[in-house]
Amino acid sequence: MSWHKNLTDPITSKAVASVEAPLGFNDPVKAKSTAHTQPSQSQLEELKKKKIWDLAIGPGKQIPMNLFMSWMSGSSLQIIPITMTLMLFKNTINAILSTNSMFKPLETKNNSNDITLAKIVYFALNMVIIGIGLYKLDTMGLVPRKTGDWLSWEEQTIWSNVVV
User: Fold this and answer.
1) Which residues contact 62 (CB under 8 A, 6 or more apart)?
2) Which residue blocks in the chain are alpha helix, DSSP H?
3) Closest alpha carbon to 130 in 66, 68, 75, 78
4) pLDDT tens sequence across 24-58
5) Are 157 and 163 within 8 A, CB to CB?
6) How far is 54 from 120, CA to CA, in rounded Å?
7) What Cα–Cα distance (Å) separates residue 26 from each residue in 22, 31, 32?
8) What is the dihedral of CA 50, 53, 54, 55, to 10 degrees?
9) Which of 155, 88, 96 is nearest to 120 (CA)?
10) Each residue of 51-68: pLDDT tens digit?
């Protein structure tokens, strides 16, 4: 009795052919027969359109995280909340300034309207994030919006007709 099976034997090859390959097994013989074909131009346009909108709504996916992080850092004047708020502004402003370079590789002559609309959505969502940062600065008392914050620019009232 031998310890191996001869898979070329007609009797055992029938039994082996009826056994299915396990999940995840890539048969190299079948892989060569199903060669990967290039996508058509319309498929490429559709993929680019999908990628454009994925990039455009990316800042919207960060809004809940930024709200939660702003809430968790507190509203006291300490180094951690101030640093987190400044990083929020820095990252958002850098994202706004790099908008054109981010969408440039996906631009074609057919999708210029889609890219323009996606840039507007991208800018609007980044402005929402800047609004979160401004609200955070306001809760910390760093945004001058009360009359007491502007007293140094007030002129002193001189009463000339004072009767004593």
Assistant:
1) 129
2) 10-18, 28-33, 41-56, 58-73, 79-97, 99-103, 112-139
3) 66
4) 787 776 666 555 678 788 888 899 999 999 999 99
5) no
6) 14
7) 9, 7, 11
8) 130
9) 96
10) 999 999 999 999 999 999
Place of tokens 């850092």: 73
- The predicted model gives 146-162 an average pLDDT of 81
C-alpha distance across the termini of the chain, in Å: 129
- The contacts found for 58-66 with CB under 8 angstroms, 24 or more apart, are 58/122, 58/125, 59/92, 59/95, 59/122, 59/125, 59/126, 59/128, 59/129, 60/125, 60/128, 62/129, 63/125, 63/128, 63/129, 63/132, 66/129, 66/132
